[in-house]
Amino acid sequence: VVGQNQTAKSLASLDGKNIDAILGLPIIQLSLNLPIYSQAKFCAAYYNQGDVSLSFLRVGYNQRIDKLIKGLLHDQTMAIALHGSFNEITMAFGDSIQSNFSSLAIGIHASKKINKSFMIYAGFQWEDIQGGFDGARKKVNGQIDSPYPEVKNNEHLQFNFVSDNSYKMILGLKAKYGIIDFFTDISLASQTMINSGFSVYFFRDTDFY
Fold it and tell me: What DSSP assignment string belongs to 115-174?
């Protein structure tokens, strides 16, 4: 499926400075193929145990434009699509620590099938990542001896997360083996990153594209 791997990876593998390696968490995603050569994606997870809660939401949409614009591509092994996605993660540890992240990505990508097993793809997208952290300090009597006002007055530790990156280019290779797709790609952004992984399809519509 076009755009299956390269769409909106930023939240799962945050681009940033001086990051050597990140292990992405596995997710289960529902993909719905629509009649107009488009695809809607949805993923949600929630965990609540004691004072710890975690929620994750991903909504995405891919729209092939080469099928809508006749004559755009003469090579039937190629495809061009627009994509967009929204991701959100919230975390809380009781009333003392709360944090949230959200990202929005919009872009275009293309792919070409080399044969039945291999595909190359490339993409470009604009993205925005935002979030915040709020941590309550333990209450103490009087003021704390510190040069920092927020520590001295026992205020909450609050700060916002912003992205160093607004645009990203991706080039990758995908290999299909049965119900498993293996992929490796390189992302050019504020920091160059190499992503590798695999996707397992429980149900796949092989005639959709």
Answer: SSSEEEEEEEEEEEEEEEEEEPPPP-SS----SSHHHHTT--EEEEEE-S-SEEEEEEEE
Is 62 within 8 Å of 3 (Cβ atoms)? yes
Q: Report the C-alpha gap between 167 and 165 in whole angstroms.
A: 6
Contact 209, 2 (CB under 8 A): yes
List the Cα angle 54/58/63 in 5-degree steps.
Answer: 175
Paired tokens of 176: 């299909």
Count of positions (residues) in the chain:
209
* pLDDT tens string 56-66: 999 999 999 98
Range among 5-14, 27-36, 78-87, 133-142 with highest mean pLDDT value: 78-87
- What is the distance, to the nearest Å, from the Cα of residue 27 to the centroid of all Cα atoms in its chain? 11
Q: Is 110 left (phi over 0), alpha (psi -120 to 50) or beta?
A: beta
Rounded-to-integer distance, Cα 181 and Cα 118, Å: 9
Whether 31 contacts 40, CB under 8 Å: yes
User: What residue type is assigned to position 75 of the chain?
Assistant: D
Structure pTM? 0.74
**Is the separation of the CB atoms in 169 and 187 below 8 Å?**
yes
Spatial distance between the Cα atoms of 186 and 18, rounded to a whole number of angstroms: 16
Q: Which residue in 10, 9, 13 sits closest to 24, CA to CA?
A: 13
